[in-house]
Design brief:
Rossmann fold; 6-stranded mixed sheet; 4-stranded antiparallel sheet; 10 helices; 38% helix; binds adenosine-5'-triphosphate; ABC transporter ATP-binding protein; nucleotide-binding; AAA+_ATPase; transport; ATP-binding
C-alpha cells in the first residue's frame, strides 16, 4: 500500500470531524472519497497532507509512519495536495506559480522536464505563462492548482474538488487529465462532490458520512449501488 490511514480521529476544538477513518490507497490507483457537505472529506485530505494534526490514529505513507511529520517534509516524501478553493498565488505569474510547486527540488533539468509535462497536459497554462495567477478564470486557476501540485513530482497527488465551479465541458476535461496523470504513474486520491464523474473514473472509492466511512467498493460497484445512487447521484 502506498497510503494507509488507520483509525484517524481529528478535532477542531471541541468538534470531532473524523471518527476513526481507516482507508488504503494502493500504488497506481485512483481512489475517490465522496460524501455530503461537511462529511469530513477535506479534513481527511488535510490530515494526510499534514495541514491539520490528528488526535488519534496513524498515517503510513510508502512504508513510513508520517503521522507526526511536518507538512513540508511530507511534500519531500512525495505527498502533494491541490487544495480546495485552488489557492493560487494571485500576484505571481502562471509560470512562477508552477515554479513554487517545485520549491523543494533542486534539479533544474528535472524541473524543466516537469514544466514541459504540465504545459503539455494544460496547453492553456503555456499560452498564459506570463499572466498573473489571480487574473486567470476560475477553470484556469483550477488547472494551475493541479499543475502546481504536479511540480513536486509527487507519488501521491491529493485533489480536493478539482471540478468545483467548472463548466460541464471543463469537468470532463479535468477528469480526463486526472486519468492521464494517473496513467503516467501518479497515484491519486480525489475528493469530489461530483460523485458521478469521480466514481466512473476511480478504481475504488469510499463514502464518508459525518466523519465515518460507511461504504467502500470499486468505482463501478458504488456507481450502481442503490443507496449511493439515491444519496449522491441524484437518481433513485
Ligand atoms: P465540503 O464538501 O462541504 O467541503 P467536507 O466533507 O470536505 O465538506 P470538511 O470540510 O472536512 O467537510 O468538514 C468536516 C466537519 O468539520 C464539518 O462539520 C465542518 O464544519 C467542520 N470543520 C471544518 N473545518 C473546520 C474548522 N477550521 N474549524 C471548525 N470546524 C471545522
Amino acid at each position: 500500500m502506498l497510503l494507509e490511514l488507520k483509525d484517524l480521529t481529528l478535532l477542531y476544538g471541541r468538534i470531532q470531524a473524523l471518527h476513526g477513518i481507516s482507508l488504503t490507497v494502493g500504488e497506481g490507483e485512483i481512489v475517490a472519497l465522496i460524501g455530503a457537505n461537511g462529511a469530513g472529506k477535506s479534513t481527511t485530505m488535510r490530515a494526510i497532507s499534514g495541514l491539520r494534526a490528528v488526535a488519534q490514529g496513524s498515517i503510513l505513507f510508502d512504508g513510513e509512519d508520517i503521522t507526526k511529520l511536518r507538512a513540508d517534509l511530507r511534500v519531500v516524501r512525495g505527498v502533494s495536495q491541490s487544495p480546495e478553493g485552488r489557492g493560487v498565488f494571485p500576484g505571481m505569474s502562471v509560470r512562477e506559480n508552477l515554479e513554487m510547486g517545485a520549491y523543494t527540488r533542486r534539479n533544474r533539468a528535472e524541473i524543466d522536464e516537469d514544466l514541459d509535462r504540465v504545459f503539455t497536459l494544460f496547453p492553456r497554462l503555456k499560452e498564459r505563462e506570463k499572466q498573473a495567477g489571480g487574473t486567470m478564470s476560475g477553470g484556469e486557476q483550477q488547472m494551475l492548482a493541479v499543475g502546481r501540485a504536479l511540480m513536486s513530482r509527487p507519488k501521491l497527488l491529493l485533489l480536493d474538488e478539482p471540478s468545483m465551479g467548472l463548466a460541464p465541458m471543463l469537468i470532463q476535461q479535468i477528469f480526463d487529465i486526472i486519468v492521464e496523470i494517473n496513467q503516467q504513474g501518479t497515484t491519486v486520491l480525489l475528493v469530489e462532490q461530483n460523485a458521478q464523474q469521480a466514481l466512473s473514473r476511480a478504481h475504488r472509492a469510499y463514502v464518508l458520512e459525518t466523519g465515518r466511512i460507511v461504504k467502500e467498493g470499486t468505482g463501478q460497484e458504488l456507481l450502481h449501488d442503490p443507496a449511493v445512487k439515491d444519496a449522491y447521484l441524484g437518481v433513485a
